[in-house]
Amino acid sequence: METLEGCGDFTTGGKIIPTLKFADNLVLLAKRETVLHCMINRLMATGGYGMENNVEKPKVMKISKRPYPIQITIDKKQIKNVKFIQKG
């Protein structure tokens, strides 16, 4: 059973897409902050996909018209918010 099965609310083509997986990175996709919290908690609890968790490395990006930052913590450390810059 997948670590994040049934967790997520980002859809495309009618299917839930909770993650994008790369060789040494993982992108979590969520429409709501509460869903992102759920996904991170599950991932941290299970050790997610056999990847080593480095709480200094993660960043969170919000793509929205509302400018407030997302408050995500891992091991009591606030995750840095980065800005989405649309060019073109």
**Main sheet properties:** 2 strands, antiparallel
Portion in strands = 15-25%
Overall average residue pLDDT: 77
Q: Could you tell me how far the N terminus lies from the C terminus, measured between alpha carbons in angstroms? A: 41 Å
Radius of gyration: 13 Å
- Proportion of residues in helical segments: 10-25%
Q: What pattern of helices and strands is seen along the backbone?
A: EEEEHEEEE
Runs in which pLDDT lies below 50 for 5 or more consecutive residues are none
Q: Identify the overall geometry.
A: globular
Q: In DSSP terms, counting alpha (H) and pi (I) runs of 4 or more, how many helices? A: 1
- SS-based class: alpha+beta
Q: What is the total number of structural domains?
A: 1
Enumerate the strands of the largest sheet in spatial order, edge to edge or round the barrel: 1-2
Total beta strand runs: 8
Description of the structure:
With 88 residues, this protein is of the alpha+beta class. The protein has one domain (11-82). The protein contains one helix and eight strands; from the N terminus they run E-E-E-E-H-E-E-E-E. The strands form four sheets. Strands 1-2 form a two-stranded antiparallel ribbon. 10% of the residues are buried.
Summarize this structure briefly.
The chain has 88 residues and is of the alpha+beta class.
Write the layout of secondary structure elements.
Elements: E1 11-12, E2 15-16, E3 19-21, E4 26-28, H1 33-46, E5 59-61, E6 73-74, E7 77-78, E8 80-82
